[in-house]
Amino acid sequence: MxxxxxxxxATLFLSFGANAATEGVEYQILPEAAQFNAPNQVVKIYSxxxxxxxxxxxxxxxxxxxxxxxxxxxxxxxxSKPPFGVEKSTALAIAKEIKGDKVFKQLKDKYYDQYHxxxxxxKDADSTIAFTLDTLGxxxxxxxxYAQDPKVKQLMTKWDQGVEVAKIQGVPAITVNGKYLxxxxxxxxxxxxxxLIAELSAK
Length: 203
Prior knowledge:
Blueprint: H1 3-6, E1 27-29, E2 41-46, H2 51-59, E3 72-77, H3 85-99, H4 101-117, H5 125-130, H6 133-136, H7 140-147, H8 150-159, H9 163-169, E4 173-176, E5 180-182, H10 190-201
Parallel strand pairs: 2-3
Antiparallel strand pairs: 1-5, 2-4, 4-5
Helix pairs in contact: 3-4, 3-8
């Protein structure tokens, strides 16, 4: 289901053109329980544990070049996908809130490489956290302290707004305005994705 969107990074030949998107085909309206507050925003919901999420990351899908003027891009790492989704989300949230975007990207890339390229799986929660400490530049005691930081906990709560979305068609999931879920299996090109995002953003 996800492979069709990965291929669009290299196949930019099909376009939406003047045709309007069809609900139930190119997108669906999220049920109220899965909607979240994200005006003028495209959100990718993902998990380090997901092989398709890794492929999307490598292909740069979605990216800021696909956004209409006035929209922003965010990404929510959910805790619900095992193994050790909570520990990975906690480490990523600490990286982003305490160390900044540069360290966040470094840690995310390091996790992806370990899990999907080197095929090394963590044996327990402690080893999942220990793997992050050099990149974060902190001790385990500091990690545990920052894990309780209100900013870190708030970010993880925000990210887990994507859990209900992920139940619908898995991850990665791409949403627009916290209301519309793109049916990724229907997308055939970057141009089509860009035009669909623009149409849904204007709704």
